[in-house]
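Sequence only, no structure available. Ideas?
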Amino acid sequence: MIEVVLLGQPFAAARVARAINQGADDFHARVINGRQYLDLLARPPRGDRLVAMRVGYRVGAATSRGRMFDAYWSLLRRRLPRVTCCHYWLGSDVMRTVEDARSGVIQAGPLRASLDDLHLSVAPWLTAELEAVGIHATTAFIPAPLRIPEVAPDLPEAFGVLTYLPNHRFAFFGGEIVMETARRLPDVRFDVVAGTAEAAPSAPPNVHWHGWVTDMAERYRESTVVVRVPRHDGFGNSVIEGLLNARHVIYTHAVPFVQLVSPVTDDALTAAIGSVFAAHLEGVLIANTAGRDYAVEAFDPVRLGNELRALLRANS
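Reply:
I predicted one. Tokens follow.
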């Protein structure tokens, strides 16, 4: 039995634990927090093999919280010498690690101690960014709680753009550029989820705000293009779900059957959306069925769970 103890960002850690446990009889994964951190040191699991996985908690952070967690991690290594240490990188943790390395504030000791650990990342571009700071990672998609339609909906008659712009990270997700693009394309409907009009009081009238949406099926059904243009990203669920719904997708990273826009500017985003809109007006635009086929295969949760367990078996 391989015991996997996950520490870190609760939502992502719970997803990883579910992926490891689903359909496996030789794994037991669980997320711990709070007092359980100390319990792990006092009463370590008795499985044949033990993996401690930190999810989204970057190594070498100069913050007081980061130093405390690295100190705990070092104690964990000494207290449990047979443990396999694993780091699962999600997105912002990579961005901040690279920034700290460039500015010279990263804590070299904890970083150096982690180099022989198992490192996983949720996207190939994160793997490349980590390589630049000396961390050799393996790309391993996390099976996401995605809604996979049995049959992709037809493209809507009315052309529409769907984008994710949470109020508290409006600028980070390219909100100003999306608003300017909407101004330049007044005949295109822009649907914004996770955000409200308070984020952009001067938004043009073709922008429609939906706030937090729990069931995205209708939003994908009414969209033609899914746009995701953050400053930095892991592998955005809206990109995957857009592909699964056979929608055209515009993104800041190179993904099969997705239109790349990088760097993101008003002109670049307007041109990218405008080209799809022109095909729609000419009556030649078809659903992105090739993108759907790719996503169904690439993000199959059973296969991803099997691949994740295989990586842990091989390295523990």
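The first strand starts at residue 2 and ends at 8.
Hope that gets you unstuck.
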